[in-house]
Fold:
Amino acid sequence: MEYIIDVQDIHTFIGQYHILEGVNVRVPEGSITALLGRNGAGKTTTLKSILGLTPPSQGKVVFNGREIQGMRSFDIATLGIGYVPEHRAIFRDLTVEENLKIAERKKGDYARKQEFIFTLFPNLKQLINLSGKNLSGGQQQMLAIARALVADNRLLLIDEPSEGLAPVLIEVLMEAIRQLSTESTIILVEQNFLVASKLAEHYVIIEEGRSVKQGKMKDLVDDKETIHRYLGAA
Amino acid sequence: MSAYIRKNYLLLIVLAVLAGLFAAAAKGMESKDFVITLLRGLSVGSLTFLVASGFSLIFGLLDVLNLAHGTLFMIGAYIGWTVYIRPDTFVDLLTPLALIVSGFLLGDLWTVLLSSPQGATRSLLGGRMKRILPWAGILVSALILFLVLSRYPIAYWSLDNYSESPVAIAYNAGQGQDVLEPPAVFERISPWLAFSGLAIGSLLFAFSLSLFGQVKISVPRITWRSFLGFAVALLAGLLLFVFNDTLTGFLAGLNRNWLFLIAVLVAVSSGVALGALMESTLIRPLYIRPTYQLMLTLGLGAIGLEMVRAIWGRPEFTMPRPELFATASGDGCPATSFADWWQYHCSTMIVLDGRIRIYNEILIPIIGVIVLIGVWVLLQRSRLGMIIRAGVQDREMVEALGINVRRVFTQVFALGVGLAALGGVLAAPSIGLSNVMGDSVLLNALFALAIGGLTSYPGAALGSLLVGLLQQFIIKYGQIGIPIPFTEIVFKPTPPIVPASTILLMVIILLILPNGLLGRKE
Structure:
């Protein structure tokens, strides 16, 4: 099978802490893969290590057939990886439109993608001149995802999209993410197993900095023991 | 609206009190004194703002407290003075400068040499050689450059002989006398040896520096374009050498207004180049160690100060005002209107029976406002400004979008230092050149930023304005005195109260609004 991204046994330190101690993630093109695990297991750090924000000290990250570990973050992103971080990281002093425009990599990216983005999130269109700090949590999350769509990204890294959102909004977001997966491959970090299990086709469980189990989501849903052991929930 | 008032009532109260104080201060003096004091306050505020805005841009985006900013303000003034008073020295310096820069314009070639697997340099870079080679190269090239430069003829003033010192030159220039010395000639080194030495030294230096870099993943292709910058720099160096006397003569014969404009441009671009060099070589390796960075900027400030002392000497000297502001008295001066001023080039103008200095109290505030608006437009309307505003909040996210934040860091640092240099060269004809001219300006700028809010651009403007006005009003009241109500005492603030009052204002405002007037909560 063709993998768009192949993370091979990466180790990452933050300061002197050994956060990742051997993580493997393989993601087939055009699918959603969920990274599962408890708080502090290393899911976010895995995403950041792919992007080079916390560069791995060992191991390989192969994106689209090319080794990218050790490259600078902005070079990695330019290869076609979009990032929707935890807590959204919307630019508070920029307007919604500026938040989208800043993500342009080529001139005209925003103009080209505008229609697609606003069909996906019709709400954003009315907020276009509002500054980021005046958005609600749900609107910020939509904007954060929209921002990752402005440039041509083959891979999207989405971190905890449902965090702190009302159930109605989570439904909307799930629908949006499902639509996106027809265009690009997605790695999703999600605490809410229900959300993750509905969206993702594949899963990787990370436990104490190691990837301990991966496979197809539909097998995991029936595997109560694994769920209980690693995710602590049913 | 009411929500805004509820949220910012403290700020509104403080602003109302300040406005009340301002009105009271205005009422306490005659209108001519008021106009003069107001304009002087604007002038000091503008100079403060030029330093404060750069400082705050740098701190906001890079988290670097650039304590060398006062020194860079001073260096801007001294560079501007040199171009203005001694164009021969300036022109003489251009050729070596172009040659030294030339090697660094071959960046692509160095990358390729370093990256190509069969490249000769790769095999040299095994084991211990990898550590020694760059340093050895830097040492050898520095030696070559030093040997050549110490023999390179540059028309230069003398610090030991008073009649040839900057003080005397500046005085003579102010009297309208010619200050150029006979052109320097090649005696201790032949021109061609000097040129080839500088070019070779530069090539070796640039190559050695590139050895420190990592092997890049994307290797550029070598075409004739890769050599374009190098060739242009070499050619420019040679042309400047051939036409040295012509250019010097042209500059020296130029109207003082145009020469001043050129001096300002050279000072600002030197500031920009110096800032870019500082950030990319010295500041950049220390982003992970902020305390070291702070000490580095402090040390750089001290080094800069000593270099200025070594080159231009310790005594203070003046910079004559450009011709438009030169005529002190007689023949229609002091002017009574701008038309008079334009016709007679007066240095002063009568406004409401008071005499104001046009350069200090009108030109400088106008430039301050132009810069204020210009940088504001840059921040709000350009892509660079958008990246800066976003980066102030979250650098990591900006980088994750595929933007080279480090390059933006260099640009912002260069911009900040350029603004400081602009402040310096503008201040020179007004307050003169001295080794300490940067200190008080930096202090004022720091107070202004604390008052206005550290990383807020409008805050920098408001704080600078307040500091300038407060100081000038206190100085004025030191002359005319404040009658204390219900007594016969007239209180005259003494000079030491001037800086103290600024600090007092800062303390009061910080007690009420811990983030300054327009600063954001941390």
